[in-house]
Amino acid sequence: xxxxxxxxxxxxxxxxxxxxxxxxxxxxxxxxxxxxxxxxxxxxxxxxxxxxxxxxxxxxxxxxxxxxxxxxxxxxxxxxxxxxxxxxxxxxxxxxxxxxxxxxxxxxxxxxxxxxxxxxxxxxxxxxxxxxxxxxxxxxxxxxxxxxxxxxxxxxxxxxxxxxxxxxxxxxxxxxxxxxxxxxxxxxxxxxxxxxxxxxxxxxxxxxxxxxxxxxxxxxxxxxxxxxxxxxxxxxxxxxxxxxxxxxxxxxxxxxxxxxxxxxxxxxxxxxxxxxxxxxxxxxxxxxxxxxxxxxxxxxxxxxxxxxxxxxxxxxxxxxxxxxxxxxxxxxx
Length: 333
Prior knowledge:
By secondary structure, this protein is α/β, with parallel strands linked by helices. It has one domain: NADP-dependent oxidoreductase domain (TIM Barrel, Alpha-Beta Barrel). The chain has helices spanning 32-44, 60-68, 100-114, 133-146, 159-166, 189-196, 237-255, 259-268, 283-290, 299-308, 321-326, 328-331, and strands spanning 3-5, 12-14, 17-19, 49-53, 78-83, 85-87, 93-96, 119-124, 149-155, 173-177, 199-203, 274-278. Strands 3-4-5-8-9-10-11-12 form an eight-stranded parallel β-barrel, surrounded by six helices. β8 (119-124), α4 and β9 form a beta-alpha-beta unit. α1 crosses α2, α3 crosses α4 (133-146) and α7 (237-255) packs antiparallel against α10 (299-308). The two termini are 34 Å apart. The mean pLDDT is 95. This is Aldo/keto reductase.
């Protein structure tokens, strides 16, 4: 697998990364043995960027990654961890905490759960509105100096926050949703990231399954699957979104590729500074997504994709209104 650098100061990683969230949380039940096998398959295929969060399954996702990496050379992978989301025993969301003392506490617990002496890229999952980003990044810089983390990243922040953070310490990447159905970063956030030498790790490249080409509109989502309340999966919206996906099918078939592969390849080809994260939970879906690395989209293909899925054509916001209101990346658009 080819590689890319995260920003101008970050590590070299595989051109496609693996996001682990769905293996422990938010997408309904998952098979732990298959999850471990999928991580193994990813590493064997050359995937080096593995993304998790300390709040995915309240720490169980980190423990899953620890177990999956037993016997794997630690230097073979780049572990990216998000922190700061607060959750209750019932899984509820209680806000975010990015105070300097909390930053170091979260890091200590993640290092223990992961069974490693360092985290490669460490980032607040969201902007804490009660803590200046300078204070959060300052604490992260101290963790870098102490050797506990190697690099600092950000997640779902806007252009102004990126500038303020980068003035304190180099930022290697911004993790943010980016797909054919979510292109809001193109207006301001992506240009500023490029100006500052900050890479992008794009999550949601398959729009939580809508762009997979496998979504069944009659599927009943469980109470533990957050898509059950996601606007894009609501009646009326999901049908319109899947119609866009069907328009994309002709482009994929002409390329001898799947819809998912075209969707991942589109993100990957938006720039060498962008690394798509695929959220495959099975080896079958992983193999399909990694096949995107062999799909080259020419000018005619890109024009056909634009006609099939025009910018801002998605029906429904990417999160519910209360969550959208909390996103720094959305407030500054």
